[in-house]
Amino acid sequence: MLKIELLESFIAVAECGNLSKAAEKVCRTPSALSLQIKKLEESVGQPLLLRDNRGVVLTESGNTLLNYAYKMMQLNTQALDELKDCQNREVIRLGVPTDYITYYLDNCLLEFVREFTCIELVIDTDVSGNLYKRLHQGEFDLIVATHWQPPVQGELLFERRFHWVAAKNGSAHKRETIPMALYPENCPIRAQVFANHQLSMRPINVLLSTPSPQALCMAVENDLSIAPIAEFRINDKMQILDPIEHDLPPLPVFNESLYLNPESQTEACNQLIALLKANLKNRNTAVE
Predict the structure, then answer these.
(1) Which residues form a coiled coil (predicted)?
(2) Which of 53, 187, 252, 264 is the most exposed place for a label (fewest CB within 10 A)?
(3) Contact yes or no for 287/232 (Cβ under 8 A)
């Protein structure tokens, strides 16, 4: 094992070219320094210095070790500095809708974790209604949430458009009681489906309740049900249904917004918000 204090002394000797001058530099006696160099040579099993009346020069093995010694000292300093800086590690608790977590991880959250190593980012997923409630209960510092109304105490990121979708050439949407695949309770999209469903419309049967947009799409593509699907997820295996023609509840435009806990207005949270906003500029071409 190469001890840091021995490498420090070895570097001093290599730079000074003289044991006495090196001893002064590292605040040791020449005899103590000479003993350290001997221990280092015993550790590597090779002579590191050639001594004469003019001073010392490095052997070939000494030159090789010197390069590694500089790197090891640099890593040692970096590790100590980082540990010192991270003694008061800040924690950010972030809530993200379950169906969008893949997008946010791919586009900005992983980047934030890698760049800000002294900030612990704790991510939890849930439906937007639950995220908003938990934010006000103090469980989160920051959330991304979807709502059909403009944010009152949040910052709008962008709008999401949803459409009623059925399987292309399918029959699920023609049934007397319409089978639906919806997001779980407390999801604003699900809430608007039932809020806008009139008694004069065809009855609804919730066949599938899931936070997974992939599961919703699969249920539609296999003609098991219809579903409110985000515009960017609609593919050539689906057809868009006109809500008036098919007697379905209208779907409003949904707003995706940032909501910050007033007690969490820290520089770290501001950095995360800036990164979220910067990466969402290309949202129209992203696959979530």
Answers:
(1) none
(2) 53
(3) yes
Residues 173 and 238 in one domain: yes
In this structure, are 56 and 175 located in the same domain? Answer: no
Following CA atoms 6, 8, 9, 10 in sequence, which dihedral angle do they give, to the nearest 10 degrees?
80
- Could you give the CA distance from residue 36 to residue 5 in angstroms, rounded to a whole number? 9
What would the pLDDT profile of 164-214 be if each residue is shown by its tens digit? 999 999 999 999 999 999 999 989 999 999 999 998 899 999 999 998 899
3-state secondary structure at position 277: helix
**What's the token pair of residue 245?**
């023609």
Residue 18, domain extent: 4-83
Q: In the structure encoding, which two tokens stand for residue 107, read together? A: 């586009």
